[in-house]
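REVIEWER CHECKLIST
Item 1: Sequence provided? yes
Item 2: Single chain? yes
Item 3: Sequence as submitted:
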Amino acid sequence: MSQLFGTDGVRGIPGHYPLTPDLVRRLAAVAAYVLRKQGAGRPGRNGKAPIVLMGRDSRSSGAALERLISQGLASAGCAAVDAGMIPTPALSHLVPRRGALCGVVVSASHNPAEFNGIKFIDSQGFKMSPELEAEIEERLRSFPDPGPRVTRPSVDDRAAEDYVDYLRSTFPASLDLSGMRIVVDCAHGAASKLAPKLFAQLGADVIAIGCAPNGRNINHGFGALETQAMQREVVRRKAHCGFSLDGDADRAIFADEKGVLCDGDMLISLSATDMQSRGLLSGGGVVLTVMSNYGLVEFLRSRGIGIVQVPVGDRNVTEAIEKDGLSLGGENSGHIVFRRFSPTGDGMLTALQTLAVLARTGSSLSRFRRQYRVFPQLLRNVRVDARVPLEELPRFNRCLKECERRLKGKGRVLVRYSGTEPLLRILVEGPEKPVIKKLCDELTSAFKKEIAVVQPD
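Item 4: Structure as written out by the authors:
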């Protein structure tokens, strides 16, 4: 398992491991070396160096990290091209169209402003595979720092315009958003200059919030993880709906006209049923993660829509979509993949496709929100001193199987260790709150009793 790459690239606080100057330069150089060796992308035009397209979100540390990356790329014989402040999914769209070796996004997505990150996009627009990440990490161990050098990346001054043109083309030509008032929250992030303009061009009355990035306010008080401002503004301005993007605009969370939140599960239900009715749901199914509410699973199955469930992570969603030839999948966090249009999750694209359904049907978002009943859910975090493999806890596993039996297929139990904290997470979901509380209590007690025996003080 990679120690450097997380589920979405390399993240940290700039100046501290792993985002130190030498490691950033080395990382860029090794990635370029590995990809060139693999033959990814097209060679540079007229015998010139292959290009790498770079983009960043609105964090003040982004430009400095891009300079370090361009130095590493230059040492590996690549030419950096700067697309400026631009959403992550924009690079997924542009990299294959520019014939680039790869894309490099400088962003920490939904994390606070003091963090930043580096994620790679392959020549086809997909996130870099775990296998390539592992090879890069292995080669990094012995790869020397190429050192600082003077580099002047060229500028792709059409990148944002081409991306917005592509997004506009995904909206049905027979429809527009005239007469629709929407709140657009950009989290003071990468889409701040693009999203309000795009939706206004389609005829919407746009109320823009969270669109004044200053390098330090990304995701602060606004965005997909802090939607309260957007919800309040929807109610205050009597909007038809609103949506919040995160810092790099690869996810979207909506609120209906009553200010009630509509998460990724609800957006998937809306698009899945709409696509099914129009014969556009390839493979007759969708991809969900294990965190999707069981109410959604039950609803989609009742409509004859197949379900493929995968571990948390938008890369897992994309891989399952590709493997099974499907056209839709996503996470309840708001990462939705519309494979007809994009290889990755895209917040603005998700908003466009959601609003297209509302425009086509003339329905309110609250009507779609009521399509299925959200099952009650209880999450319990149990602090641990060490992650004892769950398979080594037979009594706890017997309790787990008994709890699953008592749900009678009308709910689920999910038990896993946190990847970032010393916690065991116990999630129980079912039709009735008293039942799931009782089951959660029993699982918590069984775990604590057995772990005390396995790891006595």
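Item 5: Key structural point noted by reviewer: The two ends are 30 Å apart (CA to CA).
Item 6: Recommendation: ____
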